[in-house]
Amino acid sequence: MDGEGFGELLQQAEQLAAETEAVSELPHVERNLQEIQQAGERLRSRTLTRTPHDAADVKASILLGSRGLDIFHISQRLETLSAATTFEPLEPVKDTDIQGFLKNERDNALLSAIEESRRRTFLLAEEYHRESMLVQWEQVKQRVLHTLLGAGEDALDFNQDVEPSFVSEVTIPGRSALDSVEVAYARQIYIFNEKIVNGHIHPNLGDLCASVAESLDDKNVSDMWLMVKQMTDVLLVPAKDTLKSRTSVEMQMAFVRQALNVLENSYKNYTMVTVFGNLHQAQLGGVPGTYQLVRSFLNIKLPGPLPGMQDGEVEGHPVWAVIYYCLRCGDLNAAMQVVNRVQHQLGDFKTWFQEYMNSPDRRLCPTSENKLRLHYRRVLRNSADPYKRAVYCLIGKCDINDNHGEVADKTEDYLWLKLNQVCFDDDGSSSPQDRLTLPQLQKQLLEDYGESHFSASQQPFLYFQVLFLTAQFEAAVAFLFRVERLRCHAVHVALVLYELRLLLKSSGQSAQLLSQEPGDPPMIRHLNFIRLLMLYTRKFESTDPREALQYFYFLRNEKDSQGENMFMRCVSELVIESREFDMLLGRLEKDGSRKPGVIDKFAGDTRAIISKVALEAENKGLFEEAVKLYELAKNPDKVLELMNRLLSPVIAQVSAPQSNKERLKNTAVAIAERYRCQGIAGEKGVDSTFYLLLDLMTFFDEYHAGHVDRAYDIMERLKLLPLSQESVEERVAAFRNFSDEVRHNLSEVLLATMNILFTQYKRLKGAPAGTPGRAQRSLEDRDVQLRSQARALITFAGMIPYNMAGDTNARLVQMELLMN
């Protein structure tokens, strides 16, 4: 009877303990009765006569005690370490106290080491934090700069007169963001890249882009590409050092020659159009040639004699006007023909002109040039004949401040005159104010006059021509890029220059679209080529990733400030932005083989690019996409690691069609089947965790479906939890090897398993009475076994070094008590 009373009392105590744990989490006290009595007397005496300080101690004891800390022992330890709170050296002791002296020295040494370590740690942490912030800020700056499509030096000048955008009017929402002109250019870029990646001879990108202009039926665009082709036809072998090549005298002379040819051919075509458009007035006849063309042109332009023409006429036209227009059309022989006809009227000019015509660089010798300049200053400076003054200034490269507005009334004429006066050698025969260098002419056009002088917003092609013909390629491209409807032309001009190695690129990606760099010669500008392409492709990379990839291929040899390959970086951003993983990077077939993507023809080692994109997706939290990419890159360790991270939060959830768990489960099962068929395995710990999570997911599916016996069999085979008292120690030891993904679900696994045992117990109790003896004994044995298993689960939950959810233990105990 006494035994039954004690057992009932014990059962009530355990039930009370379970209810207490369910209400609040109090610390477990392990003391005998005498210690409990002494502690109680101490607390009672202090509570009866307590001061405000004592009350604070009591509250502190309760607070810290709820977390398992003993304030009495802690206060004693803090008192012994009071000196360590400031890490200052201890006070010296008396010299006679040897033991105290040694202890003090030891403590001082320890405190010094601690203080030095603390100081180094803080300095190192600050340095790491600063570097991290700088990297992040650099990335933010680049994203902001790439977003500002109005890039360049005037990007934030909202008052400038910029042409309106017409692109949005022709794009189709939800489909391609490219207009017809951009599509035509993109097709030529595709043809160009196909030749390169297939190992064929590099085609001429300028010719491919010029063919687009022919289909547009736009004279301005056609003339622009004709000018670009002629200006860039100066090299046989691409330069290794673009800056050195561009600033060499030979290259600059070649640029000036090509620019003069462009302007002279253009003017000759203009005269032909004028003449053939007015044949009756022009009275074209005689031997075909430039002379007859100029004579007929002057019949239209100068129909009668002009005042101030003092040196006679040629077939009714002032001689100097005929010479000037022959020179303007680029035909020196025709001009010489005129000089020979009236040589008796021109004095020494014939000799000077013959020397000028026979000179390879169109330059008189210093002696002749000085004589001509002296004659000009004494006799011709104030001449009333504007054509004569212009011809002398061309031949002698003198009077560079005279713009000759009477004859050069158009921008092309002014530019032709000034390019003819450019000097490249400094022989000391002329003063600096009488010499016009190419950098001086560039500065005059770009900075002194600028866009407003040339009405660039109304005539963008004209200003582009002015800059391009004076070898300011980067400034010309940057200007044209700011005009929305002409942006595509600017980008492809830059690509042509880049392929010919004539483009001066910025050294840093964060630089402005057009910038100067320290140590450069005057008027040298650099174009941020990387930024130019990224700004252009940003418009259509989400709708036309294939076309964007073609442009990114030009960056395959470029690197950013961190040394990262820009092609790989742009591809990774493109894939993440467009989400076209299968199309761009390929996809994995059911048999484990990889179907190639668009990227395969651009890169031999696609695994490196796919791994880069996968890492980028992982860093952005796109774990499911990263799993597919890592599998494409044949990295099973990362595949299983990320799958474990994805599966862990959902394995205990109720599965439903189209749910997050169902999708992840299907993905995981497909990976598991593929890896087992191919014999692929990851790192041992990650691999075992993955398959264990899959088994646990099956366990919960059976559990939620009400198949408790099947779920019990799964848990028994997994050997994750102890189902007998003898296996508790073994399971506790094995628990230390489980990963966090498994431990995270331990509370749910324990509760589900206990619930299964409780369900089986209730079913056992509900068995009909009066069963045969052997069956009755079997039921009793099963009853004892279920109770023992429940007790084993509670013991296991209390022994494992892991903090589970707050009410897990209480719920376990409650169910176990209900089984008694």
TrEMBL record:
It comes from the Eukaryota. It comes from Oryzias latipes (Japanese rice fish). It is found in: Nucleus membrane; Nucleus, Nuclear pore complex. GO terms for cellular component: nuclear membrane; nuclear pore. Belongs to the nucleoporin interacting component (NIC) family. The keyword Ribosomal protein does not apply. Its main location: nucleus. PANTHER family: NUCLEAR PORE COMPLEX PROTEIN NUP93, NUCLEAR PORE COMPLEX PROTEIN NUP93 NUCLEOPORIN NUP93 DEAD EYE PROTEIN. Pfam families: Nic96. Keywords: Membrane, mRNA transport, Nuclear pore complex, Nucleus, Protein transport, Translocation, Transport. InterPro entries: Nucleoporin_int_Nup93/Nic96. One of its GO terms (molecular function) is structural constituent of nuclear pore. This is Nuclear pore complex protein Nup93. GO terms for biological process: poly(A)+ mRNA export from nucleus; protein import into nucleus. It is a peripheral membrane protein. Plays a role in the nuclear pore complex (NPC) assembly and/or maintenance.
